[in-house]
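Methods — Computational structure assignment.
A single polypeptide chain was analysed. Its primary sequence is given first, followed by the predicted tertiary structure written as structure tokens.
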Amino acid sequence: MQEVLHFIGQLEIDKPFGGTKIKFYPIRFREVADPEDYLTMDEAIVGEALEVIEKSEGGSVPELRVKNNSDRKVLLVDGEELVGAKQNRILNTTILVNAKTETIIPVTCVEQGRWGYRSRKFSPGSSAYSRLRRQKLEQVSRSLRERGDYKSDQSALWLEVNRKLDVSGSSSGTSELRQAYMDKQREVREQIGDAKPPDDANGVVVAIGEKIWCVDVFDKPSSLSKLWGKLSTAYAMDALEEEKEKPKAPSVDEARQFVEQASSARLEPYDSAGLGSDVRIEGDDVIGSALVYNDKVLHLSLFNRKIGDKPLA
């Protein structure tokens, strides 16, 4: 767990960029260690290095089978969406899949009304929006404490998906979260514009309206750059629910203080579903997780426990 504390202590936060309702505060390292070599999920699936399929012919809602045919590891990031097969899913946690291995991964359904093959293999989709990721993270952390597995509360998250479809004015015969993203493409583009992090940024603190919502940080800037399209879209899906037209954004000091809360939170390591350790972070106002491998943090995510609905843990 010292790796997580050291990682947080090395983060530097800069002045924000973004639109009127959503601000992104770039995060950089004070020290740069040798980054881990891996492919992102999209790179691996598109390049046919990675296959994601149902666990069995009959399928299992909370689990999928991953086959890494590559000589390189693959990083699957919490909240990333997988589209197709018997129903669309999102990843329950960040996982590093070893080269030339087959792994069972924990997932959550985001398409309640379908249980039939649309394709044999999954394709990469977008990423879950922050409110959904935070709820899922709280549930998975509780499941790890109580039962030692990475399961979410599927019924509760179906309710949240349906809420999102409703506030987005979206209609889906299978309650497919993806429909809300498709219906809000124009509004998402307006929220994000041409905003993108600096080339040397490893992550961002995300503020929506007047509050810090979440943080995503990676071990190297190239990972943030490759994932920025889906992550920024997901952040913008939260920002569409901000009512104030010109809210006062938090200061850089407030963004820094939010991240530093994780240093005094309770840290609990668990065996990852792939390589390394999954460290759970729980404080009064912050909750998160970090994937640690080879004494390095590959991905750190933090969420404000006071945004959206009441915390579940």
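Note: The CA atoms of residues 45 and 147 lie 31 Å apart.
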